[in-house]
Amino acid sequence: QVYLVESGGGLVQAGGSLRLSCAASGRTLSIQNMGWFRQAPGKEREFLGAINRSGETTASADSVEGRFTISRDNAKNTAYLQMNSLNSEDTAVYYCAARMWGRSDYDYWGQGTQVTVSS
């Protein structure tokens, strides 16, 4: 079992920045990828990007390319999502998820953290 807890969300003005954290506990050594997703009201969940244990990241979604950066601290079992140049379209609930070695799906999810960007 893996437990994920996101933090760092909140209200920010357009153009501002936030850094989200995702702390993992449990079978953390079995985590291969940590992914970030978001879901805005009335929209489908969007994959933002992921990072593996070696620190390699996937290509970011076009909507956040060049503005969002994913990083990971294995010693702290924590993944981060640095978000810059935020705009109102970034308002959503943000989730982190863990994909275990040998699995193709993200099996473990955090509870989500709300990010609201005011214009």
Q: How many beta strands in the DSSP annotation?
A: 10
Q: Roughly what percent helix?
A: under 10%
- Calculate Rg over CA atoms: 13 Å
**Main sheet overview:** 6 strands, mixed
Order of helices and strands: EEEEEEEEEE
Name the average pLDDT.
96
| Overall body shape | globular
What fraction strand? over 45%
- Which structural category fits the helices and strands? mainly beta
Low-confidence blocks of residues = none
Distance between the amino and carboxyl termini: 40 Å
Count of alpha and pi helical runs? 0
Quaternary state of the chains: single chain
Map the helices and strands.
Blueprint: E1 2-7, E2 10-13, E3 18-26, E4 31-39, E5 46-52, E6 68-73, E7 78-83, E8 92-100, E9 108-109, E10 113-118
Parallel strand pairs: 2-10
Antiparallel strand pairs: 1-3, 3-7, 4-5, 4-8, 6-7, 8-9, 8-10
What brief labels describe this structure?
single chain, 119 residues, mainly beta, six-stranded mixed beta sheet, four-stranded antiparallel beta sheet, 0% helix
Descriptive report:
With 119 residues, this protein is an all-beta fold. Helices cover 0% and strands 54% of the residues. It has no helices and 10 strands. The chain has strands at residues 2-7, 10-13, 18-26, 31-39, 46-52, 68-73, 78-83, 92-100, 108-109, 113-118. The strands form 2 sheets. Strands 2, 4, 5, 8, 9 and 10 form a 6-stranded mixed sheet that branches. Strands 1-3-7-6 form a 4-stranded antiparallel sheet, with no helix packed on it. β4 and β5 form a beta hairpin. The termini are far apart.
